[in-house]
């Protein structure tokens, strides 16, 4: 990707590793805290169906100034039904965002300005039937009852949408009470998007999730699923429940709400690299070993590698530097949104060359730790933001989306830009707005290879067909509100 040339006249000179810009996104042409899905009405907990939030759960470069951002399973901070983990029928989606970077010539502030703008919203769907939950149909202890988990939009559009509701999986065996399929069942409608990357042809996106964990490929223009990648079975859990903590009675597989949090794509577009947020149940919560899973896109073949957590309590993202080196985002849960001060938001550099495949390893902490990929600290985000006058209690607790962007040339030096975004849990008044922080690294600081896009299609801003359908969606949502 050609570098954008900027003159450093009248703006502060930059150095490798500097924070160069900050931007926020609080709404769209549809209004404050509203996305461009065209959805109307409210969800089961009273939150608007088109609520714009959490978009820094995943962030992917798509060429030019365009990025793809993924909100996770939706707004579930409002308590209304603990039997569903307070999750709602928020339709899974990705947001197409323009992050326009320009030199700041004002003489004050950071060296660059960042102007985020929401371009479009794309809902995620499947062409064939998915499994939806029956809900909780009676009032128990003041808990709000809810109906079937299928969105009303399914019938309106004759398609099947993925949602964040925790009960949207296959029905249980009447004898055992346990679903007949594992959490890897690709017919389940529940989907908790986290990592996202754009294919080299620009026509599709790859998204990883925490419920399965799953890795799916979606058509970028329509949002329809076009491929399911089969992940190693040792990541799955056998006993499913709409109450996440209940799933931890499993003896193997991912920890509840800590599935495949990060996803990278090698610059050649041939290999996906996912990373789990926390150790698998069989590896032991205290092992500190997260699994990295590589997926050959052409063949579907997978490999697993060990990543040893350092200062963070978990991993939120992984992004490719080149075909064998990656940045891993470790963080704690502290900061803005958690009511305390951020301490650990760090990016570590790793190299998978020659690392031992641990696919067959299970339960031996010492063996796993002995094979862990070496890592070195690359960027301490808290330290950098503190140095720029941002106190630790104002640093978002969930800095989860990480992506390289367009190169820039400043003062005759080539820099690679690195964008870091937050997941504000759909709580802008508590966790702050959707924030984007931009750092610059000199070309000499890392062996970076940019992803080359052959096309950059941008979906239309509104996918709904006509005002009559929009009215139908609104009426249906209001009718089913509990």
Automatic annotation (TrEMBL):
Is Hydrolase one of the keywords?
A: no
Q: Give the signal peptide range.
A: none
Q: Which UniProt keywords apply?
A: Pyruvate
Q: Which Pfam families match?
A: Phytase-like (PF13449)
Residue span(s) of domain Phytase-like? 52-426
Task: Kindly give the InterPro entries that the UniProt entry links to this protein.
Answer: Phytase-like_dom, Quino_amine_DH_bsu, WD40/YVTN_repeat-like_dom_sf
Known Gene3D superfamilies for this protein? YVTN repeat-like/Quinoprotein amine dehydrogenase
Highest taxon above the source species:
Bacteria
Q: What is this protein called in UniProt?
A: Pyruvate-binding protein
In its UniProt entry, the species of origin is given as Methylomonas koyamae
The taxonomy runs:
Bacteria, Pseudomonadati, Pseudomonadota, Gammaproteobacteria, Methylococcales
